[in-house]
Structures are given as C-alpha cells and as structure tokens.
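We modelled each protein-ligand pair independently. The example shown here corresponds to the zinc ion entry; the chain sequence is given first, followed by the ligand as SMILES.
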Amino acid sequence: MTTQARKTARALADLAGDVPTPDALLDWRNSLHYQRHAPCVLCRRPTPPRSHAGEAAHKTCAEVWIAAHPDESRSGRFVSDRRAASTTDNHA
Ligand SMILES: [Zn+2]
C-alpha cells in the first residue's frame, strides 16, 4: 500500500459514523469514498466506492445488504459518514 493509500484509508476510517436504520440510505458524500474501480464485495461488478473499512461496494449493494442483514449490520460493516461538527445544532 502506498503512503497516499494508507492516508486515504485512515481518513476514511476516521469518517465512520453510525449504521443507518434498515430503511435509511447510507451517507457516503465524502469524496474519499470514490477511488479506482474494483470488484464490489457483494455483487462482484466493478465499482468506485469504498466503505469506511476499505471494501469496494456499490452504495446500493451496501444498503440492500444492511436491510437483508439487520443483526450483522450492527457490527458496523457499512456505516454512514460521521456528521461534521458544523452540522450539529449545539451552537448558540
Ligand atoms: Zn455491488
């Protein structure tokens, strides 16, 4: 793994937030998710997105997986981006 790839992997891991409820969508808005095409771990078709753990996965495949595996999904395999501090409503 290159230094840059390691930095990207660490930044993505730091971005990990909560597991969405099974009826909600994943928030993978950060550009760090989008990398070189690699086979999706769920459907094997090429896809740019990476999960916070670095698994190549279509966002829709991950959302279907969460809905199909409600117990397993609580382990945090696929999570949404952590909300930035500026989006919380704890300001005066
Ligand atoms: Zn897929």
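Residues 3-80 form one domain.
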